[in-house]
Design a protein that fits this description.
- The protein has 357 residues and is mainly α.
- The chain has one domain.
- Helix content is 68%, strand content 0%.
- It contains 14 helices and no strands.
- Helix 3 packs antiparallel against helix 4 and helix 7 packs antiparallel against helix 8.
- It is elongated.
- The termini are far apart.
- The relative contact order is 0.11.
Length: 357
Amino acid sequence: MSRPPRPRAFRLDDRRVAVDGQPASPLPEAIINSQNDPIPAAALAPIDEAELEVEAAQRSGLIARSGVTLAGLAWTGLGGLVSLAVGLWATDLIEGLFAKAESLGIIGVAFGLVFLVGLIGVAAREIIAVGRQTRIAEMHVALAKARVADDRAQARRLVGQLVALYRNRPETARARAEVEDAVRAIIDGRDLIDVAERALLRPLDQRAESEIAAAAKRVSLVTAISPRAILDVVFVIAQIVRLVRRIAEIYGGRPGLLGLIKLARSIGAHIAITGGMAVGDSLLQQLVGHGIASRISARMGEGVLNGLLTARVGLSALAVCRPMPFSVDKPPGVSEVAPFLFKGDQTGSPGGEKGRG
């Protein structure tokens, strides 16, 4: 014998309940529309054209992949012959000293050992300096890719390396603390890289721009008053070498002779790729546009021209030595770091203040 059904409660608006013998209405079918995720689409945006030019210049010198070339074979052979000649000369010298007196031979051997130890030390320092400059250039490329991909893990790792690069600089203590706080926070990779650029790189950019402005001012003044053209050439070359070395040191590099050669190749490639002057400008536009040729003497015009070229080399050095690309801030131009060259003002302070976004 079956038990009678127990009373139960139902909601009147429940579609599964049949009213007056009518069947329950079926549930509506779900409609799913697939949509593209806008975040990956933005992350896959191409890298800025100016950044591609910088990376191409770095691959020409700082991070160039060495391979077997005819020029390399020629230089290797020449270096081997010079080394053999020096070794043969040193051997004959030591033998001659021993033939004259044993004490002279011992002194000669001692001096030779001192020279050899010093040469090994110089070579080791050059190798370390070149490796350091190469790592900075590779960090630049990696940070550009991490920002485009918005890769948080890669951004945290690279920003940590950037902080470690300036760990021994007391003036960056506050900026490093700010960046380390951002690394520990929940923040996107792109935003983390932007924080690092604002905190760490912006003060270094201002120092580098001041160095460029000061060098351009010195070159323009000395060229204007120099009595001989050969003195102009020597002074300009010396100032450019000093400026390139100083900019590399500001951004964490310590270039020696070999490092300067690789850096010079990258700077030359950057100037060639970008067309000689700053983005969107040409030398003729800058000279004619500001009426320099019609307002100053020929000698002063040469000074301004040399100052412009010095500033342009400095800006290329800034671009290839910087450990990360320009993202938050706009890359500086010649008219921004050395405005006095266009106003005929040779007494103003170097490097006008430039607004930062």
